[in-house]
Amino acid sequence: MVSLELPSAVMAFNQKPVRAVLLDISGVLKNCVDGKDVAIKGSVDAVNRLKASGMPVRFCTNETTTTRSALVKKLQAIGFKVEEDEVFPPAPATCLILKQRGLRPHLLIHPALEPDFKGMEQKDPNCVVIGDAQESFSYQNMNAAFQTLIALDKPVLISMGQGKYYSEDNKLVLDVGAYKAALEYACGIQAEVVGKPSQAFFLSVLSSMNAKPEETVMVGDDIESDVGGAQKCGMRGVLVRTGKYRPSDEQHPKVKPDSIVDNLAQAVDILLKTK
Amino acid sequence: MSKNSVRCVLVDLSGTIHIDDTEIPGSLDALERLRKSDVNIKFVTNTTKESKRVLHERLCQLGFTIAADEIFTSLTAARKLIEQKNVRPLLMVDDKALEDFEGIPRENPNAVVVGLAPDKFDYNTMNAAFRLMLDGAPLIAIHKARYYKRKDGLALGPGPFVTALEYSTDRKAEVVGKPEAAFFLEAVKDFGCDAAQCVMIGDDARDDVGGAQKCGMKGVLVKTGKYRPGDENTIGPPPAHVANDFAAAVDFILSSLIV
Predict the structure, then answer these.
(1) Domain boundary at B175, B193, B219, which?
(2) How many domains does chain A have?
(3) Which residues in chain B touch residue A175, judged by CB atoms under 8 angstroms apart?
(4) How far is the alpha carbon of A162 from chain B, nearest alpha carbon, in Å?
(5) Which of B175, B195, B220 is the last residue of a domain?
(6) Which residues pair with B154 in a beta bridge?
(7) pLDDT digits (tens, 9 = 90+) for A88-146
(8) Top enzyme class of this protein (chain A) (predicted)?
């Protein structure tokens, strides 16, 4: 490995021991270019090096435009060594909550995600679940979700993530958070968030590897959901300058990352250097 | 006329003097009585769909004697704001409303204007608006209603879609319709009178009465249109007066406020 001279500010997140790592997927491992997934330079190798070092790694994503199994297959196809039980998207966590609380969802989700909700009772809905529906965020579909909510005595809206936007084909596009905010405003309610930055979501991922928040680092390209969310849980949050990253993120009014790195490869270099 | 005498009356349209194609009984005569008193009259309405011409034609067909320039709508206010800012808008408004924006340059847009336009709230257009805003384009909301009543039930208004863009850009829209103070003040600007000399009559406690009273006007709530019992208790301060309908509101103004 090349020896690296890194500025001390970048190293800050590594002062205390790191015993587990959470990685965001979109914008950290891969980008979407011309409708195709492309590994971000150095990321395949970075994941391999991290795993080879014996560090427990989990992939913590708000991806809701595809099922977990399809997501894992896509990652494997572009070279990542990832297994399904290491990947934590919001849909399986949402199904668990729906079952526990006897909720029957009206789904406003991407058609490709529907198999993850197979088997959930959807007749006579008593809540609305939204994900990143992309083109399915039409007025008609939003209106149908609204009409379901407003007809309930106590409207329950579950939002899989609350991201503001993300990068697709080198363009920024609206994320589910925009549509969550729209339905909240229309009904005068607050949604429950499943996925990042929900504390319960982060903690359930940590418990899968018996990791403590104060010993864990989260690496992501979303200054609020990834970095801010992880920090609120007691983890360290590292921002990468890939994916949807914008220079203005470094002056975010509320969130100050423990470190900002160029990409995942650099974050892993730092992690392994002092291990 | 004394200093505090009312010199200008603002009148809401739908739910106050008519509902769809029906006059609210007594409104035609009441308007004539009001006109005899020599006060200035302006009809003010939140519309995102119907152009001023369409509204005017409907009122004429109902028998009202109203000049087109007596109508001040949220579309008119949006147009004024666009001209003031000298911007080229991406117009997310209903096709029927486009005639109120005739002559406004729209190529290579650098502003976003949102009305009620179900056909234009698709994901791609919303993304186009979002990216314009990231490049610094201002967001102008014709109004921010949460929902409205349609024949098949409640339906989303423009407010939720404005909120979506606000959330993802961390920016706030400039709202131009009722209950914004700027809207009421712009409507009476040509009359050169103080807000205290104006009274607003409408069926919406929050948007008509509350909005007018916030900018120093008096508000009269009518119990027609969307009024529901108890609405007068939902705003503070309460309406200056609550009247059964527009005719009773006019009688109150003529007998008590023009002195």
Answers:
(1) B175
(2) 2
(3) 168
(4) 10
(5) B175
(6) B149
(7) 999 999 999 999 999 999 999 999 999 999 999 999 999 999 999 999 999 999 999 99
(8) hydrolase
